[in-house]
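protien #1 (seq + structre)
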Amino acid sequence: MSSYLRNERVKARRRLLIATLVVLLALVFDLASGGMVRGAARVAASAVWSAGSAASGAIFGSGFFSSKRGLEAKIEALQQELTAQQALTGRLEVLERENTQLRAMVNFAKQQRGVAAPIVSSSNSSPYGTFLIGAGTLEGVAEGSIVLAGSEKGFVIGSVAEAGEHISLVREVFAPGALVEGLAGGAVLSLEGRGGGNARTEVPSALALSSGEPVTSTAFAGRVIGIVGSVSSDPGSALARVFVRVPVSLSELQFVYVVPRLE
């Protein structure tokens, strides 16, 4: 047997002897002290057990592991609340736009005789650049009447193509393929409608047109029909491309103001 194994056995016997002596001393001291050692051990063990019970209660009692369904229900409830809040916000935005447009109708009525009418079918539903309004001949709307939107004096977005008793069909100024003559920067523009409130044309590159410049039309009694959106040209080209648009989203319009054509 190697000296290493002999040494290990000696060390093990020594540790066992020391542990036995410690236990015997503890028993002797406990007997001599009337059980104080056992009492202290019980107090320590009780404190450890209480701490363990408190931690266990905090984890399991709170349902951290056992309330997965409750947590999922809470998340779902919060998602539903968020959806409801988003719907309310969207509704408030719609009401705000409606209020703004109605105030514009009041402003129009102060300046010129006409009829405020709700839009009853969006231009998005028609590929021909047309939409319906809830006013007709019995409300004073006639074929050729000018349809305005916007604020202050407004701008022309179309004219009445057909008028019924209480419903009229409006054709947009910039309906796809429509041709209309405009004036901007002292130059005459031959505008081609592209739909969605947009038109385009080409002008000499030397013509100074800037973004945001109003475009009027004699066909609509000199009223504004749009603004210059952008001007672009290729290097060395004699012509520049001009894009014109109405300064409002037609899809968001809810009301328009209709005035006689000659006014």
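ok now protien #2
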Amino acid sequence: MRIAIIGLGLIGGSIGLGLKRCNVEGLTCQVIGISRREETIQAAIDRGAIDEGTTDLKLGVKDADLVFICTPISLIIPTLKTIVPALKQGAIVTDVASTKGLIVAQAEKLTPKGCFFVGGHPMAGKEKVKLEAAEADLFKGATWVLTPTDNTDKNALETVAEYVALLGGKVMKMEPKLHDLVVAGISHMPLAVAAALVNTIAEAKEGQAEMKKTAASGFRDTTRVASGDPILGVDMFTTNKAAVLKMIVAFKASLSNLEKVIKDGNAERIKAELEKAKSLRDSIYG
């Protein structure tokens, strides 16, 4: 099995490290890394994430059986357009983007007959997005959403699912539109809320210096995702605009409700709101 990974950051590097570990455990595959910079390719080879690499997209995927596109969201479709002429018959292409509707629709139109596209999104990551942060166990126990449509080839879907399982991921299948609403709520909105909270402090006219000096674990944990790469956030919000805006409306309504009960000084209703939040969060994380 010849596997190409386009983009050798946190996700692409972790896929490579995971696959190479599987090689040691009995899987036979050759991993080719594709990056814009020779230095990144060499670093990935040195780390044992890939067997070989190239800066040439078409050359890198020419003989690949499976291609992971691990670029920023805005580059996935342009990348697919570039590699399509070089794909061999039977090649399977998947991606790791956190939005799926637009990507899957466009990718299915672009993928030539005899080749296959399967939308994917590993629900794993860190604030650090470069190769240095990659780890073989990044996907262990993590949900990896695959987003098949009526056009998705079943054998290609199962092949991608098998490799997700080899990397330690737990496959969940979901149609693209539902996926985008789900991630708007549990992935994109946390960034929106964290950024808004941090910017509230950044724009505070009074007490800002003291807030920064006294900020402890509560502020740190609530705003952790605000330390991520802003470009990733731009891609999330622009490619999943409708779902994110829908969740922002719902969040503003929830915040307004909390504002009202606090303003009214109604301790029982404040408690009820906090208990409702605690109950749902505890049901997710225990």
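The two ends are 40 Å apart (CA to CA).
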